[in-house]
Amino acid sequence: MHRNVRRGRIGWVRSARVVSDDERGLLVWIARGAPVAHEVADDGRGMRAMPFAEWLSRSYRLATGVWAGPPLLKFLPTGADHSVWLFRDAEDRFAHWYVNLEEHGVRWDDGEVAGVDVVDQDLDIVVDPDLTWRWKDEEEFVERLAFPDGYWVPDEAAVRAEGQRVVRMIEAGEFPFDGTWRDFVPDPGWTVPASLPPGWDRPPVR
To answer: Where are the alpha helices (DSSP H) in 57-173?
Structure first.
C-alpha cells in the first residue's frame, strides 16, 4: 500500500506490486485498474475541486475506486524526500518522469498487508524524455502555504531545495533519469486484486 498522509489522516492509497527493494530504494508497479482510495469531503468532492480554505472547513471520508490513470512505476529512493514515477502512454510505452516531492517514506508491515506512508508536499516536476523539465502544481503549493495551521508542509524552503537538488540530477542525466526502467515491461502473469485488502486503512505510521 503506497499511502499519502495529511496531518495524521490518510489522503490517498494505491495498491502496488513490489518490483524490487534494495539499497537504492523501493520500486513498485501500479497497474491500470488497481484498487485505490482517496479522501473526499462530506459532499463527495475532492480537494482540488474547491479552494483550500473551504477544504479545511469540511469533514472527510475515504472513497474507494480503481486506478484509472496509465500504468506506472514508482521509485522511492532510500531516505530521499521525493519519489520518481515513470508514466506510460496509451500504447504502454514510456511517456515521461514525474517527480513527486514528499517527505520520505516510512514503512509498516502488519503481516497480511504492508505499505509505505509518505507526506505528499504537492509541488512536482514533470520531466520529458529529452530531460527538459517544468514545475507542476506550484499554484496549489503556494495557495496552501497561506494556511499554516491546516497545511501539512511546514517548510517551503526545504521542499524547494529538494526540488532543486533533483533538478540538478535531471539536468546531469543521473540515475534514475539515465534511462533505467524506461523499457520496463510488467510480467504478463501479474494479477490485479479485486479490492483493497483488510488493513489497508490502518492508522498512519507518520
So the answer is: 138-145, 156-172
Q: Which domains does the chain have, with CATH numbers?
A: 2-172 (2.40.380.10)
Listed in order, strand segments (DSSP E) in the chain are 2-6, 9-14, 17-22, 25-30, 35-41, 60-66, 72-77, 82-88, 94-109, 114-127, 133-136
Q: At what angle do helices 138-145 and 156-172 cross, to 10 degrees?
A: 160
pLDDT of residue 78: 96
Report the distance separating Cα 62 and Cα 56, nearest Å.
16
Which residue type sits at 191? T
Name the pTM for this structure: 0.95
Per-residue pLDDT at 181: 97
- Distance (Å, whole) CA 142 – CA 140: 5
Query: Is pLDDT at 61 greater than 90 in this prediction?
Result: yes
pLDDT tens digits for 62-81?
999 999 988 999 999 999 99
